[in-house]
Amino acid sequence: MRSSLLTGAVAAALSFSGLAAAADAEAWKARSIYQVMIDRFARTDGGSVDCKLYEFCGGTWKGLTNKLDYIQGMGFDAIQISPVIKNMEEDTSVGEPYHGYWSEDLTQVNPKFGTKEDLKELVDELHKRDMFLMVDVVVNHMAAKFDNKPPPKVDYSKFKPFNDEKYFHSYCNVTEWENSTNYQNCWLYPYGVALADLKTESSDVVSLFSKWIKDLVSTYSIDGLRIDAAKHVNDEFLPKFVEAAGVFSFGEVLTGVTEDMCRYQNKTKNLLPGMPNYLDFYPLNEAFNGGSFERLQEIKIQAVDACNDTLALGSFIENHDMPRFASQNQDLALAKNAMTYVIMNDGIPTVYQGQEQHFIGGETPSNREPLWTSDYNTEAPLYVLAKTLNKVRKNAIKKSPEYLKKPSEVLIAETNHFCQSKGPAENAVVFCITNKSSKGDSYEMAVPGFRDSDEVVEVISCATTTADAMGQINAYMGQGEPKVWVKRSAIEGTDICPKTTVDGPKKDSGAAASKGAATGVLMAAVLGAASLLL
Ligand SMILES: *[C@@H]1O[C@H](CO)[C@@H](O)[C@H](O)[C@H]1NC(C)=O
Ligand SMILES: *[C@@H]1O[C@H](CO)[C@@H](O)[C@H](O)[C@H]1NC(C)=O
Ligand SMILES: *[C@@H]1O[C@H](CO)[C@@H](O)[C@H](O)[C@H]1NC(C)=O
Ligand SMILES: *[C@@H]1O[C@H](CO)[C@@H](O)[C@H](O)[C@H]1NC(C)=O
Ligand SMILES: *[C@@H]1O[C@H](CO)[C@@H](O)[C@H](O)[C@H]1NC(C)=O
């Protein structure tokens, strides 16, 4: 891994001017990622076809290149794409390799997604737009069709460059998810497909992989990697692979247990620079599904303590492996709150295609719906919200690079609300999310985080408020909507809320104002009294 003090903007300017600047953790922290599953994002013809979710649907790199406006229009300045390597060709009892995770030949790109030139064209177009490319890579295994009669009969000569049985662990099925020898050396999920487990502790495999990834990164000017199933290869392999790649990498470590995840981002010796933040993922989901936000705060405190750098984790609520957020509850206000947390939280926001269209698919492959069914609607409420929030985040970084340097401060974490402040006091961004849903009542809540007489704008509704002597603002909550406030001076001259109104009680607030905020949080009990606060 190259260490550098370059900010994202400087790194981008350098790469733009043709000087090679490897994208390191610091450059990635300023970015916001949109995750694309190539087969399901856009077809070359831009058209819409019906397809079965366990078969190829026909998305391509060219299709993606043609639709970058859709992604950039939401304010994302990086994309993460599914693996680019040639896969096995057979259909299996668990479907076709439409997702790209069943590698067979690492020396060729996946002809289902296009040609080498198509992939290069995608990268060129991204870099022209000052967008980064993160590519998903599979290092744990190579794949072969399996007739479900163990042990699998694998023709190793088909694999490139790992064309011999000697590069692989002998067959055993992963059965002990708490025993690392077992889940690292045995074969994952032997059903329909055999995921022949590479002997990543052998020096032959390390050197073939190092050579391969160096070459892939330089051939396609890749800016970052996602390492699939990182937890399932031996620890020592990971830093060697990341170093050979020379770019920032997320490694997939699927666990909600702080020690299990943070040991990969150890304060003395990193195994991985970054990971998708599964620690936040579980309690965040729980808070919107009958739980409370207290658990989220607990886990965040643990993570800041145990991980070397939570600011290099990927903040997410959806990906291609997990049931969609809306598969559990279709309330739109809840999805807005989840999106707000993902983009305004610490770390690198990562939004999975379809999240912005409020897709509702559950378990795989239902969570991999083709995006064209949405007609790429740029007026969808979550698309519009992501656009606003990415702008606000980018502006905050521009105003104060410190925004990216320190973990957020939790202001309120209780049953129904979670509020956080990010960035230096003179340019703080404060948000509150709630799990009350669109049926939520109207009420007022005092939110700290600003300074005496600060004039602030809530950027989703473009309504202004002034902080009191204690730096608290009066939040007019209603219909379960999230709120994000910045100082007015921080957005002056930008296209964020060029027109504002003065915030006040919600018109629809016939319902009695309710209690529900944390102890210590000032409540304006009745709406009549609230108007005095204006
Ligand atoms: C692998 O182990 C799982 C239990 O972890 C079991 O359900 C499955 O049938 C096993 N598969 C084979 C091919 O042995
Ligand atoms: C862990 O798994 C390995 C490989 O399957 C096995 O040999 C070993 O006995 C297991 N260890 C324990 C403590 O069960
Ligand atoms: C970090 O890694 C070092 C070297 O592997 C190890 O000695 C140390 O215990 C680890 N620290 C934590 C907090 O895991
Ligand atoms: C810990 O994170 C910092 C960035 O915050 C980085 O500079 C440093 O190299 C990391 N430590 C290790 C051991 O990787
Ligand atoms: C919000 O939190 C409360 C308290 O834990 C819970 O009763 C409620 O079900 C949650 N709301 C949703 C939509 O999950």
Estimate percent helicity. Answer: 25-40%
CATH superfamily of the largest domain: Glycosidases
Q: How would a crystallographer describe the biggest sheet? A: 7 strands, parallel
Number of H/I helices: 16
Number of strands: 20
Second rung of CATH, namely the architecture of the largest domain: Alpha-Beta Barrel
Oligomer kind: single chain
Q: Could you say how many structural domains there are in total?
A: 2
Ligands, deduplicated: 2-acetamido-2-deoxy-beta-D-glucopyranose
Distance between the termini: 53 Å
Binding site for substrate: 102, 141, 226, 256, 321, 368
Protein name: alpha-amylase
Catalytic activity: Endohydrolysis of (1->4)-alpha-D-glucosidic linkages in polysaccharides containing three or more (1->4)-alpha-linked D-glucose units
Family: Belongs to the glycosyl hydrolase 13 family.
Descriptive overview:
This protein is an alpha/beta fold and 534 residues long. The protein folds into 2 domains: 8-132 and 200-372, Glycosidases (TIM Barrel, Alpha-Beta Barrel), CATH 3.20.20.80; 409-533, Golgi alpha-mannosidase II (Immunoglobulin-like, Sandwich). The chain contains 16 helices and 20 strands. The protein has helices spanning 8-16, 25-29, 38-41, 61-66, 68-72, 116-128, 180-185, 203-219, 237-245, 258-262, 278-287, 294-306, 332-344, 381-399, 488-491, 527-532; strands at residues 33-36, 78-81, 85-87, 103-109, 132-138, 141-145, 193-197, 224-228, 248-251, 314-315, 348-352, 409-413, 417-422, 429-434, 443-447, 455-458, 463-466, 473-477, 483-487, 501-502. The strands form 5 sheets. It has a 7-stranded parallel sheet, sandwiched between helices. Strand 13 and strand 14 (429-434) form a beta hairpin. Helix 11 (278-287) packs antiparallel against helix 12. It is globular, with a radius of gyration of 24 Å. It starts with 7 loop residues before the first helix and ends with a helix. Mean pLDDT is 92; it is low at 1-20 and 509-534. Residues 263, 266, 268-269 line the site of one 2-acetamido-2-deoxy-beta-D-glucopyranose. The site of one 2-acetamido-2-deoxy-beta-D-glucopyranose (NAG) has 4 residues, from loops. Residues 1-22 form the signal peptide. Its cofactor is Ca(2+). Its EC number is 3.2.1.1. Residues 35-393 form the Glycosyl hydrolase family 13 catalytic domain. Keywords: Calcium, Carbohydrate metabolism, Disulfide bond, Glycoprotein, Glycosidase, Hydrolase, Metal-binding, Signal.
